[in-house]
Design brief:
667 residues, 13-stranded antiparallel β-sheet, globular
Length: 667
Amino acid sequence: MAETDPYAAAEPTPDGRHLRVTLGSGRTLTLACTVPVEGVLRLREAGRSGAPEYGTPLLRDLPDPPARVTGEPGGARITGPGVDAVWRGGQGLAFGAYRRFADPEADTVPFLAGREEPTREHPAGRWVETVHLAPDAAVYGGGESYQGIDLRGRHRRLRNTEENRAAGRDTAYLNVPFLWSDAGWGLYAHTGGTVEADLGATHSEAAAVRIAGESPDLFLISGDAPTILRRYQALTGRSRTLPEWAFGVWMSRSSYFTAGEVVDTVDELRAADCPVDVIHVDEWLEEAVLYDAAWSSGPDRARFPAGWTSALRERGVRASLWINPYIRRGSPLAARLEDLGYLVGDAAGRPVPVENNPDCLVVDFTHAEARAWWSARLSHTIEEEGNAAVLADFGEEVPVTAVFADGTTGEERRNSYGLIYQDAVRETGLAARAGDFAAIARSGTAGSQRDPAHWAGDLPSTWSGLVSTLRALLSLSLSGVSLVTHDAGGYWTPASYRAAQEQRATMTPGAAPVDVDPELYGRWAQWAVFSPLTRFHGVGRREPTAYPEPVRSAVIAACRLRRRMRPYLARSADSDLPLMRPMPLAFPGDRAARDAGLQYLLGPDVLVAPVLEPGGRRALWAPPGEWEPLLGAPPLTGPGWREVRCAPDQFPAWVRAGSGGAVGLGG
């Protein structure tokens, strides 16, 4: 552990708006104390604006009025709307439930709040916040967590990582430097880089949060669970609305290889009376997704001739296409963009690849002309192909050696690159198709929830993959990301992934296998219907018409119900709470609800408890009141724990009694 320069003393400055903090080394730090949102205290070094930003800030453009800082015996008091905090010398800050240990040595805490000196890995040093963890408190947030929503007792490295089909471990595509506790406090570190969080892993009663950088910029948030989430979103933004069709059924596999195969698939589904609102195509380019993992070429007109989406529009179906921010090294386009300076480079200006693929170079969205070029390229694609949606893939593995056009480094941009990329996607898509465009992305950080939606990445087609996916979406929701989705059926099996690689040699339609156990496919697909967005995807076939009875009919029936739910979901998504509401958020302060960590409310009135094992059995917590079944499960009366058993055509989903008709789900 690097040597730490701890806080030693604190006093107000004469203007009553700043706090002068003395570190143990004698160095002084002047903190601006502001209250941008009621109940939120911001502490940052005076004279600094916060995280490096270009075009797409992590924070909303909010007023930042100063707090009042007055002297106290041994320290200072900070007050403002909803804020009453005390900073006493070396003890640090106490703000409601947020407080540091009074005496780190007496408490045997191995961390000191203050500044860690520079190291080779962190040349600018890191700032450490050491927060007391109440004995029975849980900790949430941090973005995706495939290992569960309660982070208490864990160490999280909040650093965006391309999981490369290994999702389920304790790393993630999308990390958010926002942590909060049901004890009543939240901490948001304003940074686009890596944050290390030891949340009771080393010392059971202490959290140590390490933020890289020369100066701190922290937001301390007070309130119960809904209030903390609302205040965090007031800082970083709410999800923007999507058109109602985006809440329908998205059908996909990796991939349909010709325009004819896409139309045939839609016709097959329509003949089975299975709704499909969007159909997605990965392999529409002259290069191959699994081989090149870049967007360096135009459409393959031999497989997707000009005007190919018109047949879909005639059928009332929108098209979605795969895109990404990478360029293949050695391609003619890469050479041209290097000459223009549009690619992310090192300190000498040489293009540098992403960390996990030496053949992929990165478009620099902090370069105004590069961003304009990329946006024009996407706009032209939308105009030519007629697609209403895109899957904006990748954006995680920003190289550490990178130096962006605006002077920021790869470390500073590691997590926020996805944000600026996705903002360019959304801005371009809506300019090309006002009110009729949607994007789904994988990477991101704080503020990314403004550019919905996000999916959980490439999970395996196994029961454990289903559970890991559910955990990830619930954790994203508790991190302020409202519109989340996943690959219904899972993304891959070893055999189907090998087959998918072989299929790229010919791009021959009709070769994708049926690769998922039918019972697993049915349960995953039913859960997808009760997710914020319903998206079927995988390297094998994911259409319900490819699976045997009774799964085939059960999934088609669920998709029909999804179509009826579209208005309710669109209305519920226009809220200051996430559309998927885990029990600690939906029923704050209820310990039984907190223990029900694998279920949620979808909007205010739909209860969902996915089947997680073979056999159709599910133990769940019924919230207070009466709950009416949506897909054949028995009615529920709460509160209390219940066990239900569901036949293949039944699923544990209920609507609050009396609200079914109002939300279009009655009958």
